[in-house]
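just leaving the lab so this will be short. what follows is a protein written twice so to speak, once as letters and once as structure tokens for the fold. can you read through it and tell me how you think this chain folds. anything you notice is useful, everything is just below:
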Amino acid sequence: MNTPLLIAVILLIAAGIAAAIFYRPKKPRRFESLYTDALNAIVRGDSKTAIKLLREVVKKNTNHIDAYLQMGEILRGEGNPHQAIKIHQSLTVRPNLDDKLKVEIHRSLALDYLSVNNLIKSKQEAHFIFKLEKKNIWALEFLLDIAERERDWVSAAKLSKNIQKITQQKDAGKLAQFQVYDGLDKLSKDDRVAAKKCFNKALEIDPNYGQAHRRLGDYYSDDRDLINAIDHWEKFALLDPSNVGNIFSKIETALYDLGRYSEVEKFYKRILEKNPSNLDALSHMANVLEEKGERQQALELLDSAMKKFDTSVRAHLMKLKLSITTIPPHELSQQIDKIIELVSGKEESDSH
């Protein structure tokens, strides 16, 4: 072959190769890369892009179960739970899925049905998970939430006990709480005998659960058994000092009804010995002293505690109340200024 012809052949081959490279169709993006992009879009909160990418993934690979699951999660979150149910339900008939994927599918369906308030099917899906994993904590906690929503305290107690057994994290107070809730429901139905059993059962579970003592105090008070009522109310006040509410007033009234006036002051001394920072007890104690005509002792009590309660508007108002007839006007004015300063500071804090 002569040289010019050889050159021409080489040029034609080179041109053919270049054309093939330049004009060849681009390879479609691999679905793994698309799925990664979709997950990144989910992280960014770009659900529109995520859905678009996930649809591309399942179009290229109809066996990509995770992509279907993610699509359903987004649709539920975007307010389309019925579409999510259709997607997740379609996965339940897929063959050859491992148990881990089946758990995720039924978990998603449980959440789907919960979002449309179909508690029956929601619970069925959670119970199905137990066929795959007998000790699935998520399913137990999910059913516990529903039991609390439905005020099914017996089931809630059983589920909570199972969770604690599996996690080995004992919480007697939680179990006692469900007994108290059950008792309150029975009280609302006028089943007082059963209610009392629930409250006592709560104390068997956790003797230090204050709310059980509070409810038993109320129970005995309704029966005019004031001695037992006072006993349980005081135990509640000592166990749960931050939630005493109107218990102090109830105890005072009961003691006065029994003619045990001197015990009111002794009661507050016991509370303050156990918890010196109990402002409610301090205020009531000051009131008792004032009513006995011991205003100076009441003021001294407050003065000794003011370092702890210097930022408390209530404590300063209590001191002002006791000081009105005993100190000169300019000192009263200073106390009022302090209260105004505290109130103004609180209002500014709340506005931010």
Residues 297-347 form one domain. The chain has 19 helices and no strands.
